[in-house]
Design a protein that fits this description.
It comes from Larkinella terrae. By secondary structure, the chain is an alpha/beta fold. The protein is built from 10 helices and 5 strands; from the N terminus they run αααβααβαβααβαβα.
Length: about 290
Amino acid sequence: MSFGEFEWETVFPPNSTTMFSPQKSLGVLIFSQKYFFILAVLSVFLTGCEQIADLKPKKSKSESDSVSTSPPTSSTPTSSTPVSSTPVSSTPTSKPNARIACVGTSITLGEELPPEKNYTKQLQDLLGGADTVRNFGVSGATILKKGLLPYWTESAYKNALQLNPRIVVIELGTNDSKSVNWKYKSEFKSNYVEFVRSFQALPSKPIVYICKPTPAFKAAYEINPDIIKNEINPLIDEVARETNVQVIDLYTPLVSSDALFRDGIHPNAEGAKMIAEIVRKAIRPN
């Protein structure tokens, strides 16, 4: 019998209890082939996915550590200690190479002294080239606007403002003690406060110092020594507190130095040197 004429019933009769029939075996074979094909397709697909995954860049351990150890960021601002605008020191200082305006009376001007011996020139010598000192002294000037010679109306005042200084040293009050001027004493403090603030308002925001006048050892030129000591000096302290500036005391250190004042009012060269040293210590304490 040829293979083509093979009769399956001979091997597996129709009523046989054999587990597999030719038809079933053929079906199993066909099913197995299909299943194997599906598995093969899935295997190829999964292998491709793994290869694609391997192509992706991986983070190094150091990169992972740097990410994991970085502190979390927050958009909430951290708290900080507020900065106060109130000066914390009674001795303010200015940076070197400052423009220094010395505003005042004939004591600042250096009346009857050689130009190189007035206190502002000697102050310049003490400071060296670190700063530039300018003299804006006016003989007979007052802080009182109603005085005989108000500093307010002098060109020196305008020039001092235009200098836009970093430091201002004000020496005024001696001539205000004259009876012709002191009759307006009720306006002395308010005029002085306004004067200080006119400099404080400059773009340079200068450090302003106000001086207690030097002692008057004689009642010369109608200047009253008692008014300077007992009225003007205390008022200058009040002005300083109101305007938040430092006082340079030219009175106390010189109160026993009458020999340094040629006419009892104006210092000689040595007296001017002492004034320069006092001012230098105030504006450059180090």
